[in-house]
Specification:
five-stranded parallel β-sheet; binds NADP nicotinamide-adenine-dinucleotide phosphate; 40% helix; 13 helices; 2 domains; Dihydrodipicolinate Reductase, domain 2; 10 strands; five-stranded antiparallel β-sheet
């Protein structure tokens, strides 16, 4: 049986992990045929050098059957994705902002677009939610969808520290970006809950109307007050059929399924009319978990 040929746009944290996973576990069914990056001058593994080409060329190349987009941002990602879909190729992306902002447009565009890795990294939440949405009237989704902020909140609590020093450490360790706005101010969690809300409701959510607060206003005093009431503060992204989506810090009771999720882990609870609370928990980011979700989209029917 001939192998499906993958074109990888992006060879950073996620792209390199996808390459490694295909080489290690999927080599009988898939081969990486081409790779596109922004800076051709950067040092890459020798076997990658031979595969490098321009991203526009890659999506149209006859020797690429499936395109994996792991560059992030809106442009040029959306144009490359559309071009690949137009060629009749499956496209797999981890790009949450792009899917959240252009959900309706991309669904209407048609073609085989997969984005499991865009929400909650290695947790196969989109697959589970899609199945449940066909059999249930989904009533609510709640999630800890941003590992960086959950790590910071957990460290603040464990080490009884204010936010700023922990954020600086997280940046030094590579857990937080130099510009932490997307994580700390709740944008990343908002994109992810908007995608889940769109799948549950069948239509794109208006990002401008989603109430959003990040973790900047969380102090040690607030954490201690919550602890006195047997609660823990978490950044929770929610969607309910009645109220839509929101991203807010909440003091969750200790028996709440999300309250015990610590560090960089993610978790999602889903409720439907025939489905009491289902909780999925697992690694929400990182090269390998995200690659696992991408490879799941490669092998999916
Ligand atoms: N990192 C995670 O844990 C994680 C988790 C879930 C989802 N994601 C999503 O996965 C995507 C990639 O994230 P990442 O962490 O792997 O990013 P990254 O480490 O910054 O890597 C980005 C890669 O894309 C390449 N690139 C950027 N612009 C390009 C362009 N115009 N044409 C061709 N290549 C281009 C870069 O090239 P150079 O190597 O030349 O710079 C680099 O190889 C993003 O959408 C992100 O939101 C990431």
């Amino acid at each position: 049986m001939s192998r499906s040929r993958v074109g990888l746009i992006g060879f950073g944290t996620v792209g390199a992990a996808v390459y490694e996973q295909i080489q290690t576990n999927l080599w009988e069914r898939f081969e990486v045929a081409r790779v596109a990056v922004r800076d051709r001058g950067k040092a890459r593994p020798a076997e990658i050098e031979d595969l490098l080409c321009d991203a526009q060329y890659l999506v149209q190349a006859d020797d690429v059957d499936i395109v994996v987009e792991v560059i992030g941002g809106i442009h040029p990602a959306i144009d490359l994705i559309k071009l690949a879909l137009t060629q009749g190729k499956r496209v797999v992306t981890a790009n949450k902002e792009l899917i959240a902002r252009h959900y309706d447009e991309l669904i209407a565009f048609g073609g085989d677009l997969r984005f499991e890795a865009a929400v909650a990294g290695g947790i196969p939440v989109i697959q589970v939610l899609r199945t449940l949405a066909q059999t249930n009237r989904i009533t609510s989704i709640h999630g800890i969808l941003n590992g960086t902020t959950n790590f910071i909140l957990t460290e603040m609590e464990t080490r009884q520290s204010e936010l700023e020093p922990i954020l600086k450490e997280a940046q030094a360790m590579g857990y937080a970006e130099a510009d932490p706005t997307a994580d700390v101010d709740g944008f990343d969690a908002m994109y992810k809950i908007a995608i889940l809300g769109a799948i549950a409701s069948g239509e794109q959510l208006d990002l401008e109307t989603i109430p959003r607060s990040g973790i900047r206003e969380i102090s040690l005093t607030k954490m201690r007050e919550a602890a006195e009431h047997e609660r823990r503060i978490k950044l929770v992204a929610s969607w309910t059929r009645e109220s839509g989506a929101r991203v807010t810090c909440q003091a969750l009771p200790l028996d709440h399924p999300l309250s015990q999720v610590d560090g960089v882990m993610n978790a999602v609870t889903i409720e439907g009319d025939f489905m009491p609370t289902l909780t999925l928990i697992g690694p929400g980011a990182g090269g390998r978990p995200t690659s696992s979700a991408i490879c799941g989209d490669l092998v999916a029917e």
